[in-house]
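Hi support team,

I'm filing this because I wasn't sure whether my run with zinc ion finished correctly. The job status page said complete, but I'd like someone to confirm that the output block is well-formed before I use it downstream. Pasting the exact inputs I used:
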Amino acid sequence: MNTIKKDIITYTIDRARNAGFYISIEKGEVIVKAPWYVTNKSIQEIVEEKKKWITEKLRQYEDQNISQRNYIKNKKAQIFGSDYNVIIKYENEKYPKLDIEENKIKITLPNKYKKNDNQDIINILLEKMYNKIAEEEIANQMEKNRIKLGFAPEDYEIKRMKKEFAKCTEDKKIIVNPDIVTLSKEKIEVILLHEFCHIKYKTHGKGFYNLMRRCMPDYKKYEAMF
Ligand SMILES: [Zn+2]
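And here is everything the job wrote out:
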């Protein structure tokens, strides 16, 4: 398993017999192929040197996963950064149904679906669930930011996107991906504040970061979580 955590890159070393030195990303994992005579210390140094490239590749992999709508991992899905057990049941029902109870997401499918691959139906149910949660959460956070900053975007829209959780358009509109509610509330806050700051400053310059800092003095702590 590989994660981008506070700039530390974890990787698996594969001591292939006749191979040269080679770094690749396979299913989101960093694999370093190295001949037997290259020391672990040298490997670490090369990984450090290639950090920018590796991080970029890992991001790309994560973005792809979002676009493939892989909400469930190890029978769990995330709401506000917390794990919810996804339980799928078949019952004598006419339509698929989804309920949230404590730390469970209960999906009930009609008996007639039993033999099918129901991945698409389950994903649609989860998408609808995230849309509903996002509608309320994003409205609240937009209002919070408006009060804090004293300005607001021309408009905002909730729309599923392939790559971003949120973006600020040329005409100063903020678009938010409803899947943002899989993240913790702190992360959502940082992401939306970031987009609000883009209303005033197009690029990540001094003015942009001054504004970020003014609204959230410890924003760096949260940025490090990504
Ligand atoms: Zn930005």
